[in-house]
Each structure stands twice: as C-alpha cells, then as structure tokens.
C-alpha cells in the first residue's frame, strides 16, 4: 500500500490520456488497417476480409502512381529547400546582428499562419496567367523582365512550385532550430579549434557542423512527415485537381466522392507507413543514444 | 491523503475537459436545432447556397415559408463552398451518425442514388400525388429523376449546362459571322480566332473541362445516343464515342491557359481576351449582375449566348432539389418546406434571384427576362438530357471516376486512354 502511494497518483494522472490516445489514435489506426483489408467498396456493404489485395490493386491505378510521384517530388523540394534556406538564415544570424529579435520574429511568423491561409495567398501569387493576364508573381516578373511561369500548372515542375509556399512557411522554423543548435556549441570548443590553428571555415567544417547533426535530423523528421501527408496546402492552392494530386487528396476523393472506404483506408495506411519510415529510425536512434549516455 | 485528492481531482478535471472538447468537435452537430421557445418548431434546411444571388433566393423562399407556417421557424444550415464540395462531406458524416437535417439540398437525379441505396431518403411519391406535381413538372424530368418508379426529391429550379458564351466583338474582329451551330463550324471559328491572336476558348479548373466534354459528347452524339450512354451495359467503346472524344481533343487544342475556376475563365470572354466559353447558365448572373457580385456587362453587346455547338434543341439540364431524409427530427416541418419548394409561388420567388428557371411549367413568365426568357422558352420545347458534371446522369462515384479520367487526359493528351477510362468508369458504376 505504501508503494502504491508513490506510483498510483502519477498513473491516475496520465491514465485518461493513455486511454484516450489508445482508443482514438492507436485504436483508430488499427480500425483503419482492418477496413483497408476488406472489400468494402461502397457506403452500404459490410465487406469481407481480403488480406492485402487492396494494397496490391492500387498499384494498377495510373492516378496512384501519379500521386506518389507528386508526393516524392514535393517532399524532396520542400525538405531540401526548407533545410537549406533555414540553415542559411540561421548561419547569417548566428554571429549576432543588430535587431536579431526582430528578424527572428519576422522569419518565424509564417509558421503562425495555417497552411490553408498560406495556400489562399499563394494561389493568387502563383496564378498561371501570363502576359497581359498576369497577376501575382507573374506580374512582378513581367515588370522586372524575368520570364513568367505556369507555376503549379506546369506538367513537369508543378509540384516543385507547389513546394514553394511550404518552404516559405517552414524555413523560419528550421532557422530557429538551427540557431538554437549553433548557440548550443560551446564557445570553448571553437576557441580550442582556433588555438589549434583551424581557419574560421575549418571551425565550422570540423566543430560546429558535426554538432548540428541531431538538429538536422529532427528538422528532417518534422519536415518529412509534414510533406508526406500534405493536404490542406494543396487543396487551398489548386483544389482537387489531378495535376497536383497527392495521396492525401486522392484519399479524400476515394472516401467522399467515390464512396469507397476500403480504397481510402488503403491510401491512409500507405501514408501512415511512409511517415513511419521517417519516424521509426529516428525513434530507434534516439532511444539508443539515450541508453549510451 | 491530500496528494491523493489533488491527483484524483486533476484527473477528473482533465477527463471532463477532454469530454467537453470531444463534444465541441461535433461542430455543426451541437448546433442542431431543438424546439425553441414560444412553441415554435425549427426546421433545419441544409444547403450550400451562401453566395450572392443564391442566398437571396433562399431568403425569398424562406419568407414565404414563414408566412405560410407561423408555427415553424426556418433554421439556415447552409455550408459555404461551390457545387457543395464541403457541404456534401459534412452531410455524409451527419447521415452516418443518424442525425440528418430535416431536409437537404442535392442535385436531382443520379447524384442522390447513393443516399437512396443507403436507405437515407424517404419516398416522396405520395407528396407528388397529393400536390399533383406530375402534371406541372415536365414528364421527361419526372422520368429522369425517378428511381424504380419512385421519386425522392423535389426540384426547385432548372439550370442549363450546354450554353456557349461568346464575345460578339471578338467574333466580328475574327470574321465569324454568327455563333457556330455545329462542331465543325465551331472548330473553324476557333481557328479564325486563333489567327487573330486571341484566346479561342477559355477554360477553368479541371471540372470545367469535364463540363466542356459533356457538351461536346451531346453535340456529337445527339440527345438520344447521349442519354443511352448512362443506361446499364451502354457501349462507351463505340466508334461514335471515339469521334466525340476526338472532337473534344481537337477543341481542347484551342483552349487557353487553364484559369483558377469558372469565373476567371468567363471573365476572359467578358473582357474580350477570349472568344468562347462553355459554361452553365449561372454564368449569366455573373456577366450581367452589378459589380458587387458580377461584372455589370450588357447582354447581347458585351456578351452573348447560344446553345453549345451541335446541341440546339436539347436542354442539358441540372436541378437543385430538396429531399426528406429518414429520421428527420421535424418531419412535418420538412414536408411544409417541401410544399413551399414545389409551389409556383416558392419557385417564382426563388428563381429570378438565383438566376435559374423554375422546374414547373406554369411559372409566371413575366418574371423571367433576357437570358432567362430564352431559357424558359427552350425548356418547354426542347428534348432533355442530363448533365454529367452536375449529378443528373451519373452518381457520385461514377462522376469521380470520370473526373479522374479527364484529369489524367489533361496531363497525357491520350484520347485512347480517356475513352478506356470512361468505359471502365461506366462498367464499374452503371446500374
């Protein structure tokens, strides 16, 4: 009884959230996988167990290939773009500049805006009109003599253009992460390297950058899972059009337009799995690191 | 002991807090109307009419409803969003949770099939008999909205989908004498406009291309062959359909850069940048209405209209209608609303504002002027064909499959693939 007094209050405190997460996150995930393994292809039928059939069948669909390709292009451009831009901003501010607080606030601010609001503004900025009909960025480009673009309507580069608002939104956050990383490198280490005859570039190359690896990894995880399940930004910019189709939009169409719960659940499962590919190695890595220390 | 108490009370508080959040997540559901004070009962009317014009029409009908039913109040459960995208998703979750609104708006015809199959809707045939509605609605309309001899909705208006909008000045400049009547004339006219450096045909987002395709299908096949495409076992692989899709591909070659939606595409015609646009007759309101909601253009001089090429004599129709869901809380109230929606008075109040014509044949013709007068005349004399994009000819999953095939075609320009996609969509969904 005495021992219960030490652990029971704590358990009671967290029990509600454990139960709720158990039911509404993991329970629902399990249910989703169960639906994905049935042939419930309309709103009314019960559906029988068909195993992994849906997971295989979906690869026969042209649209699925298209949406997966789009998601990959979007992810690469968005993750690399936000990492590089965020790193660069942090690097420029790292030495301490006048009015740093103001700059930090300005760069971080886009993160406070929802993807939907960002999307509606960028929908106008990335309008595909050219020449006389140009508005947004194309008007600006026309004005300063740069070539105009089709933006997200371009068949080849559309998804890369679609990543621009996402980069705009998230690079300030990446900057904050890297800035904290830079600041976390003890001055003594840099001094020691300089005493050993390192150039200023060498200090970064051999001391600072290696210490930034954990920060880079967390940034990668955060950006990666945002981009694989991106939905609101795409719908706000272009709506449910095939030209910018991604798995999450395809899932919405499958569930609400095609009334096909099994197909929707299959796509949802693939999205969860692809996010897991990003997150699980990170979890293993951080658990191992904790054990080591 | 004190720590215990603290822990338990915090736990309780957090559970209650979460429960409250859970309730709030229902959003609209918590607003569901209950009987309000004063013995007045609410009727929850669910629609997606929130834009200029359509919302005014709804208000006009509401006024009549409240005058006729002093013991009922109207609860406007409208959800914003063009063509009901968001509204339909919310409606679906409400129906699945068995908390339907008292009556909801839907496109008459096959779009409602999903709800009918799922057993969500009550049969309204008795209401049709009571009000003798089969005598006032066109016979072909009643036939096209019947499912197994039963009718599940009350159409309150009619829109036309096969309208060719054009800019007379641009046509004159390009040397096109009049609106093209056949597909061949249309292509020739597009070529002439192209030579002048203007956009021959303006288009919007992907659904407007499906909208264009249905007019080309109808224009090539004719009303009977077009209507036959939506019967079970229809042959979408026929040579006729191939011809139609080749026409469609040919016409698409003259299309300008896709715009964000139908309005900017229509505006290109109004502004004289483009010659032609094929869009439903809701575009008339946009062209004609004063600048708060429209472009304030003069009909016949700034813009003009004709049936889409090859479709003269056929009315490619769609209709907004109201239904009676099973388990409606206030069934009597919903019936009272349906009676207003079906009445001559209700439809004549709603339609001039919404920019559509009444489904009833006995409407007051003097209320409908300019484009609407033309539409009313054609409606009473033309053959009818159901729109694809607007839920008359095909059900929702079928439409989703067609839109997918068209969307993939826009990327690939592969006519064979498009025809195969359309054929597969029909095999999977026709019933």
UniProtKB/TrEMBL annotation, chain A:
<feature type="domain" description="ABC transmembrane type-1">
    <location>
        <begin position="68"/>
        <end position="284"/>
    </location>
</feature>
<dbReference type="Pfam" id="PF00528">
    <property type="entry name" value="BPD_transp_1"/>
</dbReference>
<dbReference type="GO" id="GO:0055085">
    <property type="term" value="P:transmembrane transport"/>
</dbReference>
<feature type="transmembrane region" description="Helical">
    <location>
        <begin position="105"/>
        <end position="125"/>
    </location>
</feature>
<keyword id="KW-0812">Transmembrane</keyword>
<keyword id="KW-1003">Cell membrane</keyword>
<dbReference type="InterPro" id="IPR050809">
    <property type="entry name" value="UgpAE/MalFG_permease"/>
</dbReference>
<dbReference type="InterPro" id="IPR035906">
    <property type="entry name" value="MetI-like_sf"/>
</dbReference>
<dbReference type="GO" id="GO:0005886">
    <property type="term" value="C:plasma membrane"/>
</dbReference>
<feature type="transmembrane region" description="Helical">
    <location>
        <begin position="71"/>
        <end position="93"/>
    </location>
</feature>
<protein>
    <submittedName>
        <fullName>Glucose/mannose transport system permease protein</fullName>
    </submittedName>
</protein>
<comment type="similarity">
    <text>Belongs to the binding-protein-dependent transport system permease family.</text>
</comment>
<keyword id="KW-0813">Transport</keyword>
<feature type="transmembrane region" description="Helical">
    <location>
        <begin position="157"/>
        <end position="180"/>
    </location>
</feature>
<keyword id="KW-0472">Membrane</keyword>
<feature type="transmembrane region" description="Helical">
    <location>
        <begin position="7"/>
        <end position="29"/>
    </location>
</feature>
<keyword id="KW-1133">Transmembrane helix</keyword>
<feature type="transmembrane region" description="Helical">
    <location>
        <begin position="230"/>
        <end position="255"/>
    </location>
</feature>
<feature type="transmembrane region" description="Helical">
    <location>
        <begin position="267"/>
        <end position="285"/>
    </location>
</feature>
<dbReference type="InterPro" id="IPR000515">
    <property type="entry name" value="MetI-like"/>
</dbReference>
From TrEMBL, chain B:
<comment type="similarity">
    <text>Belongs to the bacterial solute-binding protein 1 family.</text>
</comment>
<comment type="function">
    <text>Part of a binding-protein-dependent transport system for a sugar.</text>
</comment>
<dbReference type="InterPro" id="IPR006059">
    <property type="entry name" value="SBP"/>
</dbReference>
<keyword id="KW-0732">Signal</keyword>
<protein>
    <recommendedName>
        <fullName>Probable sugar-binding periplasmic protein</fullName>
    </recommendedName>
</protein>
<keyword id="KW-0813">Transport</keyword>
<feature type="signal peptide">
    <location>
        <begin position="1"/>
        <end position="19"/>
    </location>
</feature>
<dbReference type="GO" id="GO:0030313">
    <property type="term" value="C:cell envelope"/>
</dbReference>
<dbReference type="InterPro" id="IPR050490">
    <property type="entry name" value="Bact_solute-bd_prot1"/>
</dbReference>
<dbReference type="Pfam" id="PF01547">
    <property type="entry name" value="SBP_bac_1"/>
</dbReference>
